Amino acid sequence: MGDKTLTVRRANQGTMQPKPEQENVLLHAQQQIAFQRIMMQPGVMATTVVCLTQVVTEDELRDDEEYEDIMEDMRQEGGKFGALTNVVIPRPSPSGEPVPGLGKVFLKYLDTDGSSKARIGMNGRKFGGNEVVAVFYPEDKFEQGDYGA
């Protein structure tokens, strides 16, 4: 990676678990690789909105207390990457009508610097046992309240 040599070895069963500092180094390396892949992809335009999927379930969103806890978690986690201006988590409708964007979390940032860091930092992370997928979301659709894309 860059000017450093990356050594890869086959994992053997029965060996010790990696130490926390080794996990941090591995996580950082994975994030760097993901960042480089994103920067190399043609046509992927950064927006100020990041959409997270595989983060929350419909049942979690029905419970008011749990919904507030999730909102607070998202504000805290999202705020680590830049200045958040809005967090939207669509909730199930009491009547059972389909809700566009249900199960997604939308993080709106002040600038694309924050949203780019969030997309890289949150993509692939575990949340509630699921691997989060983070993608840029069109700003115009977000501003119109169109969360179904």
TrEMBL record:
InterPro entries: Nucleotide-bd_a/b_plait_sf, RBD_domain_sf. CDD domains: RRM3_U2AF65. Keywords: mRNA processing, mRNA splicing, RNA-binding. Gene3D superfamilies: 3.30.70.330. SUPFAM superfamilies: RNA-binding domain, RBD. Residues 1-21 are annotated as: Disordered. PANTHER family: RNA-BINDING PROTEIN. This is Splicing factor U2af large subunit A isoform X3. It comes from Camelina sativa.
